[in-house]
Each structure stands twice: as structure tokens, then as C-alpha cells.
Amino acid sequence: MNDESTQRYQTRMQKKKAVVDARIAQANESRGVLILLKGAGKGKSSSAFGTLARTLGHGYQAAVVQFIKGRRETGEYLFFRDHPALEWHIMGHGFTWETQDQAQDKAAAEAAWAVTERLLQDERYRLLILDEMSYMLKYGHLSVERVVQALQQRPKTQNVMITGRTMAQPLQAIADTISDVGDERHAFRGGVKAQAGIEY
Amino acid sequence: MNDESTQRYQTRMQKKKAVVDARIAQANESRGVLILLKGAGKGKSSSAFGTLARTLGHGYQAAVVQFIKGRRETGEYLFFRDHPALEWHIMGHGFTWETQDQAQDKAAAEAAWAVTERLLQDERYRLLILDEMSYMLKYGHLSVERVVQALQQRPKTQNVMITGRTMAQPLQAIADTISDVGDERHAFRGGVKAQAGIEY
């Protein structure tokens, strides 16, 4: 590296620092947020579980409600289930395309929502993960007004993450953070089988 | 629900099941994959750490190399650091816009890559997470050819996840899965301060 490129690098980074510092100074409100992880790409539920580790790592309590029960024992469940600051509810009774029974699916959604409403009223939980909850709205198993109301009335310090491919507009309207995970490529379409530790 | 809507629901789900089953039947190769998590949206590193929990939950060994050391003690580090099947390396010495020193940044990248090369030759590690590694290529601290070669020569069962906003084209060319996490909204821009358990 010559002196000129070193100087350029330093100038570039000084500018970047000024921008970053200004942004940090502007964001000064402390409160729980609603985060939506949508889109067809890989990484939505795993992002929620990474955030769960992050929250537990700081000594907070958390809870997970899984609205679709796919496989019996996922790696994340095996890993987290014995953590003392965590409640984990596997609700639902299978992928909807496996069960093909609307009444049963709706009853399962109601049961999962009853658990969720209790958690949404308890400020001891710093983070709630509502995994695959968006499908309950897509298929009309839950009323979006009821869901929005319960989310809006939750404790001020509580963070909520909801995952699922599509997100109802009223949910998006009240969200603080929305990440849209695009599926640019997936190993599955390249012929690679779903594997323990990566897909489940 | 009347009989007609019940019937429609069942038909819809039967069609979905047929599509899902056909796709599953086609994907029958078993091997480690390279997953890239790029884009400006929230959820890339957290997705990698969720996958880490998933991999550890199935009893596999894993390793993390963090190429940019931001905060000293993140929630994920506090949470995972004592796990017996995990190696965690916090390399780098700060955000580049804080250090503003190119020679020091390059030396830190080299040291992190030396650790990574060792891990990429060791089949005991089922999953490697190279967190924020893409910046090393963006700023020219590492050679992309060297990175690509080491990734291609890794053990067949090893999964690798790389996170970062931008991804060099040669990395994208050899990836099995690419998720592009779009930043549709972020609480930070809404004035909410970064908080323990969510951002770090």
C-alpha cells in the first residue's frame, strides 16, 4: 500500500464513521419492536432462532410458539428445549397440505393463539417468536384484527418476531422492522436433499 | 364452514401436497452446501446463529469465525460460547470505519482467514459460519480466488454459511443457496435505539 491509497482508505472510512455516528445519535427511543420476516428465501425461522439465542444470552426470558408442526424433533427444539428461561410450544398438527382438514387446522390455530395471547400479556417475556404464524392469517384460521389488537396491547418492552412467506397488510402496517428474504437460489432446486442441521 | 368450502380447502391442499411431494422426490443428493446471506435487511447473522443452534441440536460440531469485531460481548457469544461442540473465533479488531487503518484491517483479515483455512480442512466441523466475511473481499483484504479455492476443497459433508451485505460474484457463482435479505423497514430509521437481545 502506498501513502495515497492509505490516505484514501482513511478518508473513506472517516466519512462512513460520520454517517454511522449521526444515525446512531438520531435513534434514541427504547422500546420493544415488532419484526416481520417474510419472503420465499431460506433464513426466516433460523433468523428468529438466532435472535432467540441473542436474547437468552443477555439473560432475558423468551417464548416460542410454532404454528405449524412439521417434523417432530427439529434441531432448534432439541437444542433450546431445556433452557430454563424459555417456553417452547409446538402447536398445530402438521403442514396443512398433509392434513387437508380445514376444521382441524382452524382448531389448532385457535389453540396456538390462546397460548400466544397469554404470552402477549406477560411482560416477563422479552421476546416472543411466532413461527409460521402468517399462514394462519393467509388461510383465514385467525382474524387479523384480533392479532393486531393483541400485538398493539402488549407490554412496551416486549419484542415480537413473526415468520412466514406472506404477511397480511395490517400486520405490515404496525411492524417496526420488515425483512423480505428473497430466494435467489436454493440447494433443494439443485437436487440437494433437506438435511438435519440445515433445514430442520 | 359449509361442505363446499371444506371441499375446496381439501382440494387446494391436495394439489399443494402433490407439488411438495414431487419436489422432495427430485432432491436426493446428500452433501454439504454453501449458503450466502446477503442484502441490507436485518436477519443475516441471526439466521446463521439460528442454523448453528439447529446443527448443534443434532449433535454435530460447528465453528464460527467473526471477521468484524463490533461489540465486545454480544448475546449470541454469551449464549453459545461454552458449548462443548463449538469453536468461536472473534477476529478483526473493530468496525473498519472505527479503526480507519488499512494495514491493520488487512492483517486482521489475514489472521481470520488462517483460522478459517484450518477449519475448512477439518471434516469434524459440520457447519462453519463466516460472519461478515464478505467485507474482507469488498475492501480487498482477502483474495477472492484463494477464498473460492479453499471453499471448493472443503470436506464433502461440511456446510458453510457466509453473511454480509454484498457478496463477490465468484462466491455467488459457487453457492448452493443464496438468500437476499431486503430491508423494507427498520426500527432504527424509526428512531428506535439498538437493543441488547435484538441487534447484539
Word description of this protein:
2 copies of one chain form a homodimer. Chain A has 200 residues and is of the alpha/beta class. Chain A folds into 2 domains: 30 residues; 149 residues, Rossmann fold (3-Layer(aba) Sandwich). Chain A contains 8 helices and 6 strands, in the order αβαβαβααβααβαβ. Chain A has a 6-stranded parallel sheet with strand order 3-2-4-5-1-6, sandwiched between helices. In chain A, strand 2, helix 3 and strand 3 form a beta-alpha-beta unit. The radius of gyration of chain A is 20 Å and the shape is globular. In chain A, 46% of the residues are buried. At the A-B interface, helix 1, helix 2, helix 3, helix 4 and helix 5 of A face helix 1, helix 2, helix 3, helix 4 and helix 5 of B.
Give the secondary structure arrangement, pairings included.
The structure is a homodimer.
Chain A: H1 3-26, E1 34-38, H2 44-57, E2 61-66, H3 75-80, E3 86-90, H4 96-99, H5 102-119, E4 125-131, H6 134-138, H7 144-152, E5 159-163, H8 169-174, E6 177-185
Parallel strand pairs in A: 1-5, 1-6, 2-3, 2-4, 4-5
